[in-house]
Amino acid sequence: MEHSNHTRVTEFIMQGLFDHPHHQELFFGLFLCLYTAVVMGNFPIIVAIVIHPPLHIPMYFFIANLALVDILCTSSVVPKILENLLQEKKTISFGGCITQLFVLTSSLVTELLMLTVMSYDRYVAICHPLHYVKLMRKEICIRLAVSAWAVGTINSFVHILLVLHLDFCGPNLIQHFFCEFPAILALSCSSTYVNEIMMFMADILLVMGNFLLTIVSYSFIVFTILKIQSSKGKQRAFSTCSSHLLVVTLYYSTTIYTYMQPTSSNLQDNDKMVAIMYTLVTPTLNPVIYNLRNKEVKPALTVRFPH
């Protein structure tokens, strides 16, 4: 059988984020400021953790990985948004769309897994403090981080391969402001049954599975903290995981809302607002949360990046 070229569509047209052409310059400035905040907020944290010896402990190693994931996630979406805000015709090439899908999806899954690893780190630190050095030694932390990146990359690669086997021969208007699997599958003129099954399985195994693991970890953490007799001891124990708990809440509240619902629901305007949260707002807030809550990070940033 002769091999056919499945992809006839060479570019996609973005619906865009806002239906107010006369406000494009304002939105461009806003998104540019937020993107700059993401990069300038996360990059100094990575540098400070790498070159400041007191921060060479598991918790900050994972925070550095999380900061890198946030930069990749935002960089996969925002530059193209900024470009389209300055153009009347908002387009993206098929190859560009596939690249955006790959980087964005792998970043989101890696962040999901990294947050789970960080919850395990907090669980060991609070529930098994005497065994923390052994259970969270350097080689184990590296393996956990590499595994998170590997699973995120492999998951995204599998979904991309399935998309590349689809036919795109008709409509090319993406009802979103960036390439996302539900919006792309809606444009295919061939069956997307396998794609949707694989996406559903990934949602269950990765999103809900990691969510349950995080809940279990924090359940043990709460029970352990409640057993502490002194109020000062309880406050000290809770302060070690409060930043991570806040970041987890921000991430899951947007991700679960977006992905654990029917495909057609993902194309509504309110879902675009939620997408802004997990691709731009949350990566902006994460370094702020860790800077404000971690006394060790603030001095390192002050020394390495003085005002």
TrEMBL record:
Pfam families, per database record: 7tm_4
Similarity comment: Belongs to the G-protein coupled receptor 1 family.
Cellular component GO terms, alphabetical: plasma membrane
Membrane protein topology class: Multi-pass membrane protein
Top-level lineage group: Eukaryota
Transmembrane annotation, as ranges: 26-51, 58-78, 98-120, 140-164, 204-226, 238-260, 272-292
Protein known as: Olfactory receptor
Compartments, as annotated in UniProt: Cell membrane
Molecular function in Gene Ontology: G protein-coupled receptor activity; olfactory receptor activity
Gene3D superfamilies: Rhodopsin 7-helix transmembrane proteins
Assigned keywords, A-Z: Cell membrane, G-protein coupled receptor, Membrane, Olfaction, Receptor, Sensory transduction, Transducer, Transmembrane, Transmembrane helix
Gene: LOC116837380
Domain G-protein coupled receptors family 1 profile: 41-290
Signal peptide range: none
Database matches in SUPFAM superfamilies: Family A G protein-coupled receptor-like
Organism: Chelonoidis abingdonii (Abingdon island giant tortoise)
